[in-house]
């Protein structure tokens, strides 16, 4: 065996980082069990002066925290309401999805604005509101919402949100970019305030002095007079791809599973929602959403009601369990195995989103049932045959 190949085998056997071996050395590595047809334990020769670093293949880093108290976070408060956010800056694991809990007082509006780096998905928790959205073609839509409704605004589409009726409105927002901050949006009052008045005058046909009365700085959530529900204009989108989805009233959204149910909207049910999926999952007391993983999407939770427990598997011997209560959020990275259990005495309700319009998942028990018995006996060496049989039967 030439020197280059001996060195390659040594490096392959030992990896990089950790324990160093130098000088003319013979290192042993177990490539298999004696008599099983494998390589067995072999000595690997190293030339004088060669350096090999040992790496523990199980050392893949600590499991990051995947729970964050969104409602315990400091809010941004303005005249008409407040917003609390969880981005990758406050919640480092959440690289793919950011979330916001927003509250609008009666008559208040989240002013005209747009997002440069993320689409917006929303679930209305309580109260009523109206959105106005404009797309790049110049088409606009005005929609009224009540609890259980969803909206979706593609990245860059101009929009606003305003409470209608005499009750406050609050809702959960989810964005398909963990680095997105609700506090860094492009708002109309902010833009007009920083633009030279002669340019504004040319654009709008007003005198420069007219813009002295406009707000100074960003209004963000602006207080205002109450708009009666009966007076709120509702102008539907002039084509099929509406920005509104009636999650709690659309039968296409219903999905049942052992222990609970989903109300879920994907791009199949709601064509405009191309980059996200989302809905509400309900788990009955003592039941769980079984062990599974997401093939093509990160997953984000906001806990609405009840008490829950999530067990997360991150490969390399890493696992972590966290407890959740209303106001908490969870983030499950794509590919990480997980299960969700209701640990309380009432239904567990969770708003869930995924950063893919048609997310895919695989259940562990389905995988086991579809695998040959001899393969399972091999993988679970030492487990009694009766247990293997029960695993396959489910």
Automatic annotation (TrEMBL):
<keyword id="KW-0464">Manganese</keyword>
<keyword id="KW-0732">Signal</keyword>
<dbReference type="InterPro" id="IPR006311">
    <property type="entry name" value="TAT_signal"/>
</dbReference>
<feature type="binding site">
    <location>
        <position position="115"/>
    </location>
    <ligand>
        <name>Mn(2+) 1</name>
    </ligand>
</feature>
<dbReference type="InterPro" id="IPR017774">
    <property type="entry name" value="Bicupin_oxalate_deCO2ase/Oxase"/>
</dbReference>
<dbReference type="Pfam" id="PF00190">
    <property type="entry name" value="Cupin_1"/>
</dbReference>
<feature type="binding site">
    <location>
        <position position="113"/>
    </location>
    <ligand>
        <name>Mn(2+) 1</name>
    </ligand>
</feature>
<feature type="domain" description="Cupin type-1">
    <location>
        <begin position="68"/>
        <end position="212"/>
    </location>
</feature>
<feature type="binding site">
    <location>
        <position position="120"/>
    </location>
    <ligand>
        <name>Mn(2+) 1</name>
    </ligand>
</feature>
<feature type="binding site">
    <location>
        <position position="299"/>
    </location>
    <ligand>
        <name>Mn(2+) 2</name>
    </ligand>
</feature>
<feature type="binding site">
    <location>
        <position position="292"/>
    </location>
    <ligand>
        <name>Mn(2+) 2</name>
    </ligand>
</feature>
<dbReference type="InterPro" id="IPR014710">
    <property type="entry name" value="RmlC-like_jellyroll"/>
</dbReference>
<dbReference type="InterPro" id="IPR011051">
    <property type="entry name" value="RmlC_Cupin_sf"/>
</dbReference>
<feature type="domain" description="Cupin type-1">
    <location>
        <begin position="245"/>
        <end position="389"/>
    </location>
</feature>
<feature type="signal peptide">
    <location>
        <begin position="1"/>
        <end position="26"/>
    </location>
</feature>
<dbReference type="InterPro" id="IPR051610">
    <property type="entry name" value="GPI/OXD"/>
</dbReference>
<keyword id="KW-0479">Metal-binding</keyword>
<protein>
    <submittedName>
        <fullName>Cupin domain-containing protein</fullName>
    </submittedName>
</protein>
<dbReference type="InterPro" id="IPR006045">
    <property type="entry name" value="Cupin_1"/>
</dbReference>
<dbReference type="GO" id="GO:0033609">
    <property type="term" value="P:oxalate metabolic process"/>
</dbReference>
<feature type="binding site">
    <location>
        <position position="159"/>
    </location>
    <ligand>
        <name>Mn(2+) 1</name>
    </ligand>
</feature>
<dbReference type="GO" id="GO:0046872">
    <property type="term" value="F:metal ion binding"/>
</dbReference>
<feature type="binding site">
    <location>
        <position position="338"/>
    </location>
    <ligand>
        <name>Mn(2+) 2</name>
    </ligand>
</feature>
């Amino acid at each position: 065996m030439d020197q280059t190949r001996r060195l390659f085998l040594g490096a392959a056997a030992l990896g990089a980082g950790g324990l160093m071996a130098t000088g003319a050395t013979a290192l042993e590595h177990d490539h298999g069990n004696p008599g099983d047809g494998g390589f067995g334990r072999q000595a690997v020769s190293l030339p004088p002066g060669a350096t090999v670093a040992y790496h523990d293949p199980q050392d893949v880093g600590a499991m990051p925290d995947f729970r964050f108290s969104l409602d315990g976070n400091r809010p941004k408060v303005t005249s008409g309401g407040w917003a609390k956010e969880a981005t990758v800056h406050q919640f480092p694991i959440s690289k793919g999805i950011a979330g916001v809990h927003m509250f609008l007082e009666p008559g208040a509006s989240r002013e005209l604005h747009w997002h440069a780096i993320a689409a917006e998905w929303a679930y209305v928790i309580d109260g009523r509101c109206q959105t106005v959205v404009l797309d790049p073609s110049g088409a606009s839509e005005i929609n009224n919402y009540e609890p259980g409704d969803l909206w979706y605004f593609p990245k860059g589409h101009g929009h606003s949100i305003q409470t209608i009726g005499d009750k406050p409105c609050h809702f959960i927002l989810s964005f398909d970019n963990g680095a997105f901050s609700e506090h860094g949006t492009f708002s109309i009052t902010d833009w007009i305030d920083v633009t030279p008045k002669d340019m504004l005058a040319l654009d709008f046909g007003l005198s420069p002095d007219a813009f002295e009365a406009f707000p100074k700085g960003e209004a963000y959530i602006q207080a205002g007079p109450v708009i009666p529900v009966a007076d709120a204009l509702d102008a539907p989108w002039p084509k099929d791809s509406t920005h509104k989805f009636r999650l709690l009233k659309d039968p296409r959204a219903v999905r049942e599973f052992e222990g609970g149910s989903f109300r879920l909207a994907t791009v199949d049910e709601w064509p405009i929602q191309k980059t996200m999926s989302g809905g509400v999952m309900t788990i009955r007391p003592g039941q769980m959403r079984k062990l599974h993983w997401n093939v093509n999407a990160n997953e984000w939770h906001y806990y609405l009601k009840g008490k829950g427990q999530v067990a997360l598997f991150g490969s390399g011997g890493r696992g972590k369990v966290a407890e959740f209560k209303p106001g908490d959020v969870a983030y499950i990275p794509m590919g990480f195995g997980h299960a969700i259990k209701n640990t309380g005495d009432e239904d567990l309700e969770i708003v869930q989103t995924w950063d893919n319009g048609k997310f895919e998942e695989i259940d562990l028990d389905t995988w086991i049932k579809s695998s040959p018995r001899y393969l399972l006996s091999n993988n679970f060496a030492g487990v009694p045959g009766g247990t293997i049989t029960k695993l396959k039967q489910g």
